Structure formats: C-alpha cells, structure tokens
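Recall from the previous lesson that a structure prediction takes nothing but the amino acid sequence as input. Here we apply that procedure to HAD family phosphatase from Alkaliphilus serpentinus. The sequence below is the only information supplied.
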Amino acid sequence: MEYKILATDMDGTLLKNDKSLSSKNIQALRRAHQMGMEIVISTGRPYATLKPYLKIIGIDCWLITNNGSVIRNKKDEIVDVIYIDHSTLLTVIKLLENEGIYFHGTDPHYTFIRSYRERLRVFRGYLKYKNLNPMAEGLQLLWSVLLNGTHKRIDFKNYINKLGKISSLFIHSNDIQRLEDLKNQLKVIAEVEITSSGRENIEVLNRLATKGNGLRKVCEILKIPASDVVAVGDNINDISMIQYAGLGVAMGNAEEIVKEIADCVTTTNEEDGISHLIDKLLSTNGVHENKKIRV
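The prediction returns the following tokens.
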C-alpha cells in the first residue's frame, strides 16, 4: 500500500538516546519526502526545542508539538492551539503548588517557569543524555534557559487570574511513586488529558489535546484518510496517534503497552528504526501489516 503521511515522534523514536539525529534517519526522511510523503513531526516538545532539529532535517514538515495542543503547517504558521480550560488550569496549578513538585507550562511560544534555578536543575538532568563536556553543558544551559528568549518566569496563579493561557503542563520528579500518586489525583479532575513521555514525567493537557487528535486535524486539512497514514512512536503519549493511523508502528525500544497496541514493530531508536521503517515503506514489498511482526 502507498502511504501518504508519515508521522513520527522525536525522543526515543527519531532521536537516539543522546538526543542526536542519525544520518540514516535524516536521509530516510528526505527520501520519503521526495517520494511524495508528507512528514509530520509529532512531539511533546515545544517548538523552540524542535526548531534546531528541523534545520538539520532540511525538509518542510507539519508539526504537532506540545503533545498535540499546538499544530503548525509547513510554513511554521500556527493553524490550531488547544488551551487548558481556565478553571481547570487553576485547579491543577493549586494541586501542583500544594504538592511542591517541579512543573512548567507552555504555550505556542514560551515555556513558563516559577524559578530559573529550578528550571536549570531539571534541564541539566535532561542534558546528561547528550554526554556533553562541562563547558558545552554550561553553554547549552545558558542558551536554552536564560538567553534565547523562550522562558518566562511567572507567578502562575496571578498569570491565570489575568486570563493567561497555557496549552500544556510538564511535571517532573525522580520519585516514580510520587508521580503515580499525583497522577491518580489528577485523573479525578474533569476536562484534562493525562499522559507521559517518560517514566520521570507527567503531562497535563486539555482532554482534546492528544497527538492522535492533532494528526486527525492535519489529515483533515490535507484531505488524507487515516488509512493512508503511518504513525510511529515509543511511549504513552504516542498511543493515540498509533491507534488513529492506518498503520501504527512501535519502536523496538517502546513501552510494552505501545507494542501491544501497534500493528507492527520496527527496530530501536539506536538501530535507526525510522530509517528501517521507511526503507520497508518505500520498497516494492511494502510493509507487512500483520499484528506484532517486526518490519
């Protein structure tokens, strides 16, 4: 079957564990694009942290960011934003502040934080995957959090009371049980979507803001049916788009629940699973769509 859209997650899928893009995956995306496939990058990341990768990929892509709450077209123009409801947001923020746990919020342009010190600490933990030397790490921290203009320190309650809008909330802790307990408290709040892109985080969004709904919106704009779509990912927040697509693919390194839901499994992100998948999609034999086989 000839597929018209390839939607791919970033972290744990298109990116290696050190957050780098392999030349194999880059060339594979370009081949798919040249063959007429629309490429959709679907990620929990905000646009600012995705933009450097887009320059490396070098092709125009549709973008579903902030876990489905923000959609941009191939000209980087915002075509849809789903914000967390005002009253719901106040309820969630009150809970998070009472818990004393790290969180930040995002909208299409900014990351909202309570403390630069706190944000630098959490961001440093993310940088450990890049295996940077101390000087490079320090420069990356300074640029990403303090200098590039994407972070704003706010009082969340005041911001919300002044009708400030937030599309997603990212909650982080190394205490997995604490996150599980918090997730159970969040689940009783109406009108929210609770998801995760890793074991050390929870993400809170409007209940309509999912990667699956974001992909559906892109398909409606392009007038392409779900049956002509391939979606690939590795974590809980990818499930909705894997279920929506005509062919849902799990990475070899995906969580087991993702593999169970997917139609097939490609190789791991360390084994250039995206390149492997695209090679199969573009081959004359195509992709075997029987459940749970490795493509």
